[in-house]
Amino acid sequence: MNDKRPSCKTIAQVAGVSRMTVSMALRDHPRVAEETKKRIKEIAIKQGYTPDPNLIELMRYLRKRDISKDEPVIALLNGKHRPLKDLDTDSLLVRKGAIERAEMLGFKTEDFWLCEPGMRLERTVQILQARGINGIVVLPVEKLKNVFSLPQENFVGVATCAVAAKLGFNQVHPHFYQSMHIGIHNLVKKGFKRIGFCVTAVEDERSNHLYECYLDWYQKSIPEEDRIPPLTKAVITRDDFKTWVEKHRPDVVYSPNVNHYYFLQDMGMRIPADISFAALAPAIEEVGEIAQVQVGYRKIGATAIDILKTKLAHEQLGPTDNPAITLIRGEWQDGSSVGSPVKSKLGVA
Fold first, then answer.
1. Domains, the chain, with CATH or none
2. Would the pTM of this model clear 0.85, i.e. be above it?
3. Which of 69, 209, 210, 246 ranks highest by number of CB atoms within 10 Å?
């Protein structure tokens, strides 16, 4: 019995070819004749040959280092109609997390603004191709209609928002349904019954409407007198908010918008003596004052880079048949804005 581990060398000895020819045949290299490929693969199967994954990674790395001495570049695409300096805090945190992880892994990052004056999507694609940039992280976009299209055969990418599914890239974004659940679950545990939820149309669209989906399920499980109609509008003004609070008298307001915390203060409400407030996945990293379901936006960016690194290492350019979605779970963080349930001091409308 031959105890020698099957390798390219043992296959080459039987096939009567060089180890390089065996290696190229097993990778389906076009320079090897089809008949030779078939014969070499049959010998490999008989010998029980399996490639060493560590060696494959090493050879890929060495080939790439031979091609270029420069650090590989990952493009950070901003598809919004606003420049980098005007992006929402959540997008900036995603970007920061991506840059930090990329630097740790030996990549450079470079920003590209698709809506820059005088810049067209086609021109951006030309620049990326000319510079040999294959890896892309798409920063969050605002609406489904803002999602752009890319020639996928030339790139591998990861989108950091839920509405970018039509790009065909893998996605990393908050676990919206779970985040909504964990907030309401903790508020119910604290004794709150009349939970008032408010969300703009854009915020709900970015969640693929999972916020309202969970709320609808939850409200069907509680007494009708505790069901507060959510405040959902394209834009929620101070007057809209004040009218809604005074009409429905929630024990606690639950919202993705931290500004609603300050709206309550502007109304003269003492928090949490008169009413409590909890934030759903706000783009703030400080804890203590505002109770919140915290989503790690930096973690979203870092995870996008990790996924991209693996795909680039395996040279997996081109469209993905079944793009994967990685969900980042929210975590409840207590804060002084949530106290014990109190009977509303507002009058009945």
1. 8-51 (no CATH), 73-174+299-329 (3.40.50.2300), 176-295 (3.40.50.2300)
2. no
3. 210
